[in-house]
Amino acid sequence: MRKVILSILKLMRYNVVCLQGLMVLLQSLPTEDWTDEEVGLVLADAYRLKFMFADAPKHLGDATS
């Protein structure tokens, strides 16, 4: 039982470290120097991809549905 508890605590600590790293990344995104044109290009590409794959089967979803 002690090994299980230690494993859970280790996993929780790992998750906290990952979450902290993610928060640091989100607080200083490498896009702060982007121009309006660059943002527009990324949004246009995202819009295009959204509609290109809108009718694709949900192959990444739950296999039971």
What is the topology?
Layout: H1 2-27, H2 36-52
What can you tell me about this protein's structure?
With about 60 residues, the protein is mostly helical. The protein has one domain (about 1-50). The chain is built from two helices and no strands. The chain has helices at about 1-25, 35-50. The radius of gyration is 20 Å and the shape is flat. The model has no long low-confidence stretch (mean pLDDT about 80).
Write a brief structural summary:
The protein has helices at 2-27, 36-52. The chain is 66% helix and 0% strand. It contains 2 helices and no strands.
Number of domains: 1
Give unreliable regions as ranges.
none
Query: How many strands, which pairing sense, and closed or not: the largest β-sheet?
Result: none
The rough form would be described as flat
Helix content: 55-70%
Structural class based on helices, strands and sheet pairing: mainly alpha
Distance between the termini: 36 Å
Identify the notable features of this structure and list them briefly.
flat; mainly alpha; single chain; 2 helices
